[in-house]
Amino acid sequence: MSKVTILLKNKRRIFSGFVAGLVALCGLLIMPASVHASVASGTSQLAAGAGQGIITWNANNDSLSLYSAPGTLASGKCGDAIFDWHRDDFNPLTSNHHDARIVRVCRSGATHSTSIGTDTGGSLQGMQKSAFCVGNDNATTSGTCNNDSRADQIVQGNVNVSIPNNCVRAWKKNANGTTVYYSGGASTSCTS
Questions:
Q1: pLDDT of residue 8
Q2: Which of the residues 26, 40, 90, 116 has the least number of beta carbons within 10 Å of its own beta carbon?
Q3: Contact 104/98 with Cβ under 8 angstroms?
């Protein structure tokens, strides 16, 4: 083999490698930045601090139940059972509508639960986030959170836990034992 033939073969290999790398890079650039989880039905039984939250959902019959039992709480602390579902066709490229629900207990040793349909005129397509968090009232996600490993993680800021707000329906048991319901206002306009 001549030196010219070897040189041409090496240039082809280098060029082929360059093209393959460029194709792989382009594939990464056009993929969506975040592909959310979608779990059609199930139960999240999650512990955080001294308490636990139990969240059960089913896309087949649009049902959801949340239970919060945070255990012994220091003053100003609360426990949240948080569920954020995907309402529309679950295609993150064409739809990104979610509705969050929270059951919050701020009374030490108390529990609270609720069972509801999707109650917004949409249909539950799958769970996007599910967690039980214990922390400061209206900032529970900055405390200790235990997330369902099948879903996106609830972290500080990606679900607005400061209630009332226009993106979350919530049931709250206050430290004095009274329970308050927050409708979420225009929750059907929320996208996180």
A1: 46
A2: 26
A3: no
